[in-house]
Amino acid sequence: MTSYDYDLFVIGGGSGGVRSARVAASLGKKVAIAEEYRYGGTCVIRGCVPKKLFVYASQYHEHFEDAAGYGWTVGESSFDWKKLIAAKDAEITRLEGLYKKGLSGANAEILETRAELVDAHTVRLVNSGKTVTAKTIVIATGGRPNPHEALPGSELCISSNEAFHLEELPKSIVIVGGGYIAVEFANIFHGLGVETTLVYRGAEILSRFDHDMRRGLHEAMVAKGIRILCHEMLKKVSKDGARLEVETLNSGALTTDVVLLAIGRVPNTEGLGLEAAGVATDARGAIVVDDYSRTNVPNIYALGDVTDRVQLTPVAIHEAMCFIETEYKNNPTKPDHDTIATAVFSQPEIGTVGLTEEEAGKRYKDVEVYRAQFRPLKATLSGRTEKMIMKLLVDGASRKVIGAHILGHDAGEMAQLLGITLKAGCTKDDFDRTMAVHPTAAEELVTTYAPSYRLRDGVRV
Asked: Is the peptide bond before 348 cis (omega within 30 degrees of 0)?
C-alpha cells in the first residue's frame, strides 16, 4: 500500500478550499492547505465582503437625505475614503484570522505558499522548493478578473481587485462591463460622490437576469445620475496628463481619473502544473470535472470558480461539502446547481431565484406572470421616486412557482427565503394561502392573486 505525506492536500485558501480542508481534518484526516496570497479567497479578501461594506458606505448620503422627510435635521456631512479603507482592511484581517483559526482548530496544516502539481500525487511548495505527496488533491484556486490585454492601454486600467485599495477616491470613473460586478461598483462609486459612467457592449445591463429587473435597475441608475452607455465599447485608453482619455467606438472621447475593467473573470489555472498531472482543462482554462467535482485524474478534485460552473461563494462551499460526502463518508453526492438564489447589491438591489420570464416562456407552454410595481412605504415621506418591482412566474399547468424576481430594498434578503420555497416546489396556491405581513414590501408576494398577463408558447397574451 502506497504511503503518502497527507491524506488530502488542498491548493487554494478560498471558501471552497478552506471548507474542504477544515471538514476533512475534523474527520481525522491528515490535511494540508496551501495559499499563496491570503486566506479567505476572493469573497473575503477582494470580493463579496469588502464589496458589501462599500455598498453600505455608499448608501449613507441617501439615508441622510431621506431623514429630512421624517423630521430629522442632519448637519453637514463629509466622507473620508481613507477611513473606510482602514475599517474595511481591519475587518478583512479579522475574518482571515477566523478562517485560519478554524483550520488550525481542526488540525489542518496551514501553508503560506504557492503550490504546484508535479504529478497526480505530488505537490511542489514553491517558497521552499520542497515536494510533498497526497492521496487526494483538491484544487480550489478560484478565478481572477479578465485583464482585457487586447485593449490598447489596458495596463492603465484597474480591476475590482485594485478598486478596494485606491489611494484616493477619484472624482470620476469609467466602468467597463454590464455584469453584477460592474453594476455594483457603478452604484458604489456614484453613491460616494464620484462622477460615474458605465460602458457596456450589450443592449442592456445584466444580460442573464429577468428583463424587468434589468430595465428597472437601468432606469433607477440613470435617474440617480449614473451615465450608462449601452451598445458601446472602448477602443483605447491613454494618459492625458494626470488623467486618462478613453476612446470609445460610438461616443467619442471620455476623460476620467480611473478606468475599471469588469468584463468577466477567468479561472486561476496558469502555472499550476495541471499538464504534468494530466488534469484536463477547457478552452477557457477551467478545470473539467464530472458531476462529483472529480477531474479526469481520479484522485484530483476541483471546486469553485476554477471549474467555471457557477461563480458564487455558497456554491463553492456546497461543492466542498459534496466532496466530503463523496470522498470520506461513502456517500457519493452531486452538487445541486439548480434553482440557486442570488442577488445583485446594486442600488436598488436585485434578488432573484429560478427562471427568467424569457427562460420560462421557452420551457413551459403556459406561464402565468404576476407582476407588481409600487412605491415603497418608506419613500412616501422621504420623497424618493424609486419604485419596487416584484414578479412571480408560475407554470400554468402545475401551478408551481418557477421564478421569483425582486427589484428594491432588501431584495437579496427576500431572495434567500424565496429560494427555500422554490426549492421546495411550492405552488402559487401555497403563496396565496400564506398570510401577509403588513405593512411590508414582501407582502406583495402573497397578495397578488390574478396574473398580470400570460405567456402561451412564449408569446405574451
From this structure: yes
- Residues 146 and 314: their CA atoms lie apart, in Å, by 22
190, 231, 337, 438: the catalytic one is 438
Task: Please tell me the distance from the alpha carbon of residue 449 to that of residue 459, in angstroms, as a whole number.
Answer: 21
Buried b (16+ CB within 10 A) or exposed e, 23-47: bbbbeebbbbbbbbebbbbbbbbbb
CA distance 98 to 49: 14
The model's pLDDT over 101-122, given as tens digits with 9 standing for 90+, comes to 999 999 999 999 999 999 999 9
Q: How far apart are the first and last CA of the chain?
A: 68
Other beta carbons less than 10 A from residue 337's beta carbon: 13
Pull the grid cell for residue 186.
Answer: 457603478
To the query of whether residue 218 is one of the catalytic residues in this protein, the response is no
Q: Quick check: pTM over 0.90?
A: yes
pLDDT digits (tens, 9 = 90+) for 137-190: 999 999 999 999 999 999 999 999 999 999 999 999 999 999 999 999 999 999
Q: How confident is the model at residue 2 (pLDDT cuts 50, 70, 90)?
A: confident
- pLDDT tens for 448-457 read 999 999 999 9
Paired with 237 in beta bridges are 246
